[in-house]
């Protein structure tokens, strides 16, 4: 088991400050300072240079030496703990729409796999997922938009078509293609699906004159959609989930397909290695054409 002092030291280094380490550990900043002081007293050296009045911390040469040791001890402790769950454990982050409408079969397959994988699932925005994977606070993540990083391996999984979503309308069917410019922008229930989507969106509707309400989840759309005049744009997996409860139609011109990427740190913790291998096997079965972008 990793000592409290080592755990606190690693949290400080990974977060870049005592205050953010306290937030991660859910303790007070004074407790973080006391734990670090006790660790330095035990080791007989200063690990972190804490200069009064400066927000950032600076690791000392002794701290760099101890960091390597502490990271090895953490990985060993996590690996030993994961032996209770033969498939290991995974802390996974994903965007809301993917977690709910696209990836739930993947998560079910992980926990029912032989051996099973213990899953801790979190919902975040794409930029948060990348940041947490980068800092190894998530073992893997599923994000729509990604900024390339030398520390993260990014693999495209699937590209989803977008559909217009409305309440059922008399005389209209799902086979009808709707002229996007005919839609009233003031009736849109808007979700920002990423930079390429927003570039398309702003070419259709004036960004200075549109969007009375902006939402962040599809669940919000279903609660706010009460008039046949209202509309939203959602991914194909949402269409598949709700079926004929709503009217789903293609748009002309169509939005660019929505990508979903798998993010994994280049040096994942030992306890996650087996689970990541199982996850990749399940993803290949679930998305047999993954990593093939549209033409």
Question: In percent terms, what proportion of residues is strand?
Answer: 15-25%
Gyration radius, to the nearest Å? 23 Å
Q: Return residue spans where pLDDT drops below 50 for at least 5 consecutive residues.
A: none
Strand order of the largest sheet: 4-3-5-13-6
Shape: elongated
Query: How many beta-strand elements?
Result: 13
Please report the number of helical segments. Answer: 11
Characterise the protein shown here.
There is one protein chain. It is elongated, with a radius of gyration of 23 Å. It has 3 domains: 4-82, Winged helix-like DNA-binding domain superfamily/Winged helix DNA-binding domain (Arc Repressor Mutant, subunit A, Orthogonal Bundle), CATH 1.10.10.10; 89-158 and 259-286, D-Maltodextrin-Binding Protein, domain 2 (3-Layer(aba) Sandwich), CATH 3.40.190; 162-256, D-Maltodextrin-Binding Protein, domain 2, CATH 3.40.190. The strands form 4 sheets. A 5-stranded mixed β-sheet has the order 4-3-5-13-6, sandwiched between helices. A 4-stranded mixed β-sheet has the order 8-12-7-11. A two-stranded antiparallel sheet has the order 1-2. Helix 6 (104-112) crosses helix 11. The chain is an alpha/beta fold and 295 residues long. It contains 11 helices and 13 strands. It has helices spanning 4-15, 18-25, 29-43, 61-82, 96-101, 104-112, 126-134, 195-204, 218-224, 236-242, 270-286; strands at 48-49, 58-59, 89-94, 118-123, 140-143, 152-160, 162-166, 177-179, 189-191, 213-215, 232-235, 247-252, 258-265. The mean pLDDT is 89. Helix 8 (195-204) links the parallel strand 9 and strand 10.
């Amino acid at each position: 088991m990793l000592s409290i002092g080592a755990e606190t030291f690693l949290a400080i280094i990974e977060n870049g400050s005592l205050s953010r380490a306290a937030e991660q550990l859910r303790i007070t900043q004074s407790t973080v300072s006391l734990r670090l002081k006790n660790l330095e007293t035990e080791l007989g050296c200063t690990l972190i240079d804490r200069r009064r009045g400066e927000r950032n911390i600076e690791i000392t040469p002794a701290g760099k030496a101890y960091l390597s040791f502490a990271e090895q001890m953490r990985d060993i402790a996590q690996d030993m703990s994961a032996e209770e769950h033969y498939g290991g454990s995974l802390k996974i982050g994903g965007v809301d729409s993917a977690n709910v409408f696209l990836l739930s079969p993947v998560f079910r397959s992980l926990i029912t796999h032989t051996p099973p994988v213990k899953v801790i699932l979190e919902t975040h925005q794409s930029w948060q997922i990348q940041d947490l994977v980068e800092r190894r606070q998530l073992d893997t993540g599923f994000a729509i938009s990604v900024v390339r990083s030398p520390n993260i391996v990014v693999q495209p999984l699937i590209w989803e078509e977008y559909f217009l979503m409305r309440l059922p309308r008399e005389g209209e069917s799902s086979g009808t293609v709707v002229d996007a410019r005919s839609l009233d922008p003031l009736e849109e229930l808007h979700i920002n699906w990423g930079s390429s989507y927003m570039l398309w969106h702003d070419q259709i509707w004036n960004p200075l004159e549109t969007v009375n309400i902006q939402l962040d989840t599809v669940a919000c759309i279903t609660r706010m959609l009460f008039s046949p005049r209202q509309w939203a744009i959602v991914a194909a997996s949402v269409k598949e989930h709700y079926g004929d409860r709503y009217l789903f139609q293609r748009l002309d011109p169509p939005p660019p397909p929505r990508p979903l990427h798998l993010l994994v740190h280049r040096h994942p913790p030992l306890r996650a290695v087996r689970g990541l291998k199982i996850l990749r096997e399940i993803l290949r079965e679930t998305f047999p054409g993954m990593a093939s972008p549209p033409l």
